[in-house]
Every structure is written in C-alpha cells, then in structure tokens.
Amino acid sequence: MKPNILIVDDETPHRAMLDTVLSAEGYNVIQAEDGDEAIELVGNQFFNLILMDVRMKRIDGIKALQQILKISPQLPIIIMTAYGSVDSAVKAMKSGAIDYITKPIDIDILKISIDKALTSQQITEENALLKERLGEKFDIAGIIGRSKPMKRLLESISMVAPSDANVLILGESGTGKELIANAIHQNSYRKDKPFIKINCAALPDTLLESELFGHEKGAFTGAIGKKMGRFKLADKGSIFLDEIAEMAPPTQAKILRVIQEQEFEPVGGTSSIKVDTRIIAATNRVLKKEVEEGNFREDLFYRLNVVELKVPPLRERSDDILPLSNYFLAKYTKKNKRQISGFTPMAMDLLMRHDWPGNVRELENIIERSVIMTRSNTIKSTDLPATLRGEDLDKVTEPVDLTPGRSLKDVEKEMILRTLEEHNGNRTHAAKTLGISRRTLQLKLKDYGIT
C-alpha cells in the first residue's frame, strides 16, 4: 500500500511541484491549501506523514501542527520554513514536528527526511504491535532485539512464560540464554519467588550434586555442616540449569526424580525433601545428538524439552548489531567515566560485517575494550581488534586496495569510509576533502546502510 502524504502549503505552484515529485516517488499525495483544511482532512482520513509550511494565511503551521497532534498524536509532521527562520524551526520541533527543512526545498534532502520519518514510524508501529501481542505487562528483562528472529523469540516467551512448563533453551555460547531464562521467570506467576541459577559446567560432579540437592553434615570429606541445596532454595520459584549437557548420569537421574516426583534426598541424607520448582535448562550443545550418543538420558531430555526455545546467533540478527553496540557503548562509557559520542561509519561498517562467532558476548567485550582503549571521542576502526579490521584495514593510512576484480562501488565505499575515519566522522569535513557535497555523501552512506 502506498503511503499517504498530506502537503499543506498556501502557495499553489510550490504545492503542485511537491505533489509531482512525491507522486513520482510512489507516494499517494493529497493537498491542502491552509492549516484549517489540513486539520479537517486529518480528522476524516488516515495519513502516514504531513509536509506542512509554517507561514499560511488562515492558520499557520505551528497552530495547525498542535491541533493535528491532538487528533493524531503519533502522526509524523515535517515542517517547511524559510531559510534563516531558526526560531520557527525550533518552535515547530518543540511543538512535536519530527523534522524541518528550509525553503527553497532541496529535493534530495526532502526525500531523505521523508524516508527517515516513515521508517521511524514503521518501527514505532511494529513495536506497538509487538507490545500488544506480548501484553502490556510483559517484561523483556533487558533483552535488546528488533530483528525478526528476536521478535519471534519474544512472542514465544510471552506464550510459554505464564505456563508452568519446563523449558529448554538452545543456543550458541554468548547468545544470551540466561537473559531469556530471566524473562521467562519474570513473566511467570512465580516472579515474586526465588530465581536460582547454577552453571553445571562450573563444578565437578561431586560438588554439583551437593550444590543442587544439599548435603548432611559428614556426608563427605569437608562437609563440616548441613547445607541447603539450590532446589530447596528455589522452592515455589524457578531454577536455571545452565550447560545442562555437562551433567553426569547420576546427577541426571536425580534431576529426573525431582521432575517426576517433586522430591529429592540431600547427599548423605535418608529422608526426602518435597519441592515445587519450575526448571529452565540451557545448553549450547545439540542435546538430541547427546542423547543418541548415550551422553544424556533420553527420558530426562523429553521431561526438560516440554517447550524448546532457540536463541538465534548474532550473525542471523544483524538488525540488532547497531542497537546492541549503542547500548554497550552507553553502558561502558558510563562505567569508565568516558565521553564517547558514537562510532565512526568505518567502525560501524566493520561491526556490521563481522561474523560474530562469540555472539553478543563477543560484541560486548569488544565495545568495552574499545571504550577503554580509544583516545578519541568516537570509536574508530583502529580502536577495534585486528580480527575485525583484517590485514588490509589494519592501518587506515595504507593505500586503498585496487586489486583487479574489485568493483568501482567497493573502492569508492572504502575511500569514503576512510576519509570519514580521518575526520573523526565529521561529514561536512569529509565531504569537502572528497570534493563532493554533504548531501551526496549522505546519500552514499544511506546506500551503504550507514545512518
């Protein structure tokens, strides 16, 4: 469906020109000659965006803007103002305009502004729809994800969390399986009860059994007193068993008994302890293969795998790299008391192109390191590890790679990103060095997927 754009301007030739340009771009354009007509139209039909002049005869753009946003608070409005009318632009932005452009209109800038506004509106609507699907009270517990794979995962969490089913979370190391477990517990009816976590790979078998089920005094050498186990601590709540595939067969048998009979015996004990605990388990292994190879009990696998959730690796959710990077940048600049504004385009390009075998954990580690090591107020490509930069980008002063077979577009992209890097991301200075307009540079970066 074509987006509906309302053009509001009391100058008929200017309005007609904008209609022609935007119609050619594939938009469905409606015209209004003054603010009062625009208010009436918004009250009667749907628009995706409004492009409105400030100075009009009957009702000016600012007053019309304020009235329109009372009717449709989320409607994006771009204000057109005469060159040098800074006060009008500031007033428009304070009143709720999403952007402003100056007359005479630069068509390329207008297209960028409209595209940006519509994209932002689409994301807002998608988030609102997701929130509606997940429910107003759904707590994503610090999960950052706007990509399609993560949205699907969040929807699955919203459905399984309110149940009392055991959950098996699968995913590579560093994908954030513990965050998913947190979200399940925080959105269950057990959320006000304990949420106990244990990494099954972090302890030897004998100690793991003691940690899970507790022990009596004298049960083994070093057991100088009675100890309560994690399952008892998690009574009426949830327990998260991370790296479940590392558990030894005898401990697996005890876990199976807890699931089937809701009871267990402490190490060295003779009486059973009753518990009501929801089990959330996770592994980075293919658990079904472990079953086939005899390393994991098949009956326990099916008891744990009532609901299976797969956490996508970072390479399959590239839309999340930028928001995750910005989140970690804010986190570690605050922690290390640094003033770092963001990433240069070349640095962000390298982050976007990396395969991320260590997933989100690797990304977080790299951002933290870069925050600590950079001497600039932006993260440059040279602040990133050599594994991301590659040998040909190890030094931005090296000649541009003109190897036969490279496309002109690739060479141009490398030259533009390097020039931006040299100017610390300043697009005006970079454009001057490259001998192109700032507008042309903006369009090139947009084509590269860098904003």
From TrEMBL:
Its main location: cytoplasm. It is found in: Cytoplasm. The keyword Ion transport does not apply. CDD domains: AAA. GO terms for biological process: phosphorelay signal transduction system; regulation of DNA-templated transcription. Keywords: Activator, ATP-binding, Cytoplasm, DNA-binding, Nucleotide-binding, Phosphoprotein, Transcription, Transcription regulation, Two-component regulatory system. It holds the Pfam family Response_reg. The modification 4-aspartylphosphate is found at D53. One of its GO terms (cellular component) is cytoplasm. Residues 4-118 form the Response regulatory domain. InterPro entries: AAA+_ATPase (IPR003593), AAA_lid_NorR (IPR058031), CheY-like_superfamily (IPR011006), Homeodomain-like_sf (IPR009057), HTH_Fis (IPR002197), P-loop_NTPase (IPR027417), Sig_transdc_resp-reg_receiver (IPR001789), Sigma_54_int (IPR002078). One of its GO terms (molecular function) is sequence-specific DNA binding. It comes from the Bacteria. Signal peptide: none annotated. SMART domains: AAA (SM00382), REC (SM00448). PROSITE patterns: RESPONSE_REGULATORY, SIGMA54_INTERACT_1, SIGMA54_INTERACT_2, SIGMA54_INTERACT_3, SIGMA54_INTERACT_4. Residues 143-372 form the Sigma-54 factor interaction domain. The keyword Cell membrane does not apply. This is Acetoacetate metabolism regulatory protein AtoC.
